[in-house]
Design brief:
The chain has about 270 residues and is an alpha/beta fold. Helices cover about 25% and strands about 30% of the residues. It binds S-adenosylmethionine.
């Protein structure tokens, strides 16, 4: 269906994820759902932030991601930790795994680099790949929340974008396990309030022995969804009994919740 989704989780950005994005409240939240329904599929599993701890705990989970770089780093970490998951390189709207699941979960991956049509198709693929009575757990950052650039929804707020880059050489660097250093910068390029889409750019640098030896630029366009849109999309994809949680606790969200989590059931 149309163009392949384009995310920015490649090359140095993928390395950054593997090195530094290894914890967070999402891990315990999604684990409870996986414990209740296996086998499970981690869609947009990235470098295995959730998947690898689950496998280490003996849970039966496969992973898939559109980025071959993220999957490769996930596979390397899995090997280091003595587990060997089934990992697929697939965009979620073309999901075609080898088995059916009791739980499919998506953490931080929905609406990235895809079209709205592909997002709706992804929800239908999740429905198809679940067993009857099984559960989809999908999170989404509220378009108006926390770090989201809400001011860009207004013409005045958009006037200042994109802002000039700071020199990459001056960005804060973090030391990776092999002693090299990495830095990431990002900026908003555009927000289209009519289409509810956000375009961002990311620059990454790699330093060895204090010298900048590699630099990369990536772009990402992402679709912004409000709660009621996602509820409608889930219903149209065939899900029912949708419960919404806020910020990775099993309680209803409030207007101050940054993340919403949709827990949806495929009918028996
Ligand atoms: C923010 S990272 C989250 C990774 C992981 N779920 C976690 O929480 O650590 C988003 C991931 O979604 C993947 N992704 C983006 N668009 C995708 C798509 N259309 N299909 C599958 N994976 C996708 C990216 O490659 C990236 O690994």
């Amino acid at each position: 269906m149309g163009e392949a989704p384009r995310t920015w989780h490649y090359g140095l950005v993928a390395r950054w994820w593997a090195e530094f994005n290894v914890d967070g409240p999402e891990i315990d939240y999604f684990r409870r759902h996986v414990e209740e329904g296996q086998p499970a599929l981690d869609v947009a599993c990235g470098t295995g932030r959730l998947l690898i701890p689950y496998l280490r705990a003996g849970l039966d989970v496969d992973g898939c991601d559109v980025s071959a770089d993220m999957i490769e780093l996930c596979r390397e970490r899995a090997a280091r930790e003595g587990v060997s998951p089934t990992l697929l390189v697939q965009p979620m709207h073309e999901l075609d795994p080898p088995r059916r699941y009791r739980t499919i979960y998506v953490c931080g991956g929905f609406g990235l680099g895809s079209t709205r049509g592909q997002d709706a198709q992804a929800l239908r693929r999740f429905h198809e790949c679940l067993e009857p009575g099984a559960t989809l757990v999908l999170d989404n950052e509220n378009p108006y929340a926390g770090g989201s650039p809400w001011r860009y929804w207004q013409a005045d707020g958009r006037a200042g974008i994109p802002r000039e880059w700071e020199p990459l050489e001056e960005a804060e660097r973090r030391r990776a396990a092999d002693g090299s250093e990495l830095a990431l910068q990002s900026r908003v390029v555009d927000l289209d309030p009519l289409q509810q889409s956000l375009s961002c750019e990311m620059r990454a640098g790699l330093w060895r022995d204090g010298e900048l030896v590699q630099r990369e630029e990536q772009t990402l366009r992402l679709n912004l969804y409000f709660m009621h849109e996602l509820l409608l999309l889930l219903e149209r994809a065939g899900f029912e009994d949708v419960v919404v949680h806020g910020d990775y606790v099993e309680e209803p969200p409030t207007g101050d919740s940054t993340f919403l989590v949709f827990v949806a059931r495929k009918p028996d």
